[in-house]
């Protein structure tokens, strides 16, 4: 089964980490929540908490089969840290799946390769991605086969998103 890294920090959108993590684990996969340091508790916008498994400095592409980036305010906080941007770029340039929802794709803008991506995001993030050159679609799930990228717009898309990410790992 696959080992997935979920990068998040405080103020992530609770359902966008809780729901995919539960779906992935329910399918037999492992999900490591990673932030700046190991054994730190991060808290979502609505109170969900997770203890981080490791710190970003110890997270390597070779240790994981896929990347999960939930939305909320977390991606905007992470995209100013080159460690998260570099890891995200490595995943996008690898043959490993990347799963993101809502505000998660904000992180892609800093990678310098947004113009190679086809994706969706929350309505207010879509123009930013378009200006950065992405091919943005308005659909509950968008799959970019060239980058093994699965993206969705909002928590209401979670059932379709979760099904798509499980399929991507099959």
Automatic annotation (TrEMBL):
One of its GO terms (biological process) is proteolysis. Its EC number is 3.2.-.-. Residues 3-167 form the DJ-1/PfpI domain. One of its GO terms (molecular function) is peptidase activity. Keywords: Glycosidase, Hydrolase, Protease. Belongs to the peptidase C56 family. This is Cysteine protease YraA. It comes from Periweissella ghanensis.
């Amino acid at each position: 089964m696959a080992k997935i890294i979920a990068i998040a920090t405080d103020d992530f959108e609770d359902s966008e980490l809780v729901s995919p993590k539960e779906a992935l684990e329910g399918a037999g996969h492992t999900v490591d929540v990673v932030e700046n340091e190991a054994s730190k508790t991060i808290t979502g916008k609505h109170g969900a908490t997770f203890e981080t498994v490791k710190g970003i400095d110890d997270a390597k592409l070779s240790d994981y089969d896929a990347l999960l980036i939930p939305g909320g305010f977390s991606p905007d906080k992470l995209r100013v840290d080159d460690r998260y941007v570099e890891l995200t770029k490595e995943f996008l340039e690898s043959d490993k799946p990347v799963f993101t929802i809502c505000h998660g794709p904000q992180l892609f803008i800093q990678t310098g390769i947004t113009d190679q991506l086809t994706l969706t995001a929350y309505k207010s993030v879509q123009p930013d991605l378009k200006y950065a050159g992405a091919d943005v679609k308005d659909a509950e799930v968008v799959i970019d086969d060239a980058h093994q990228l699965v993206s969705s717009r909002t928590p209401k898309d979670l059932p379709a998103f979760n099904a798509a990410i499980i399929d991507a790992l099959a």
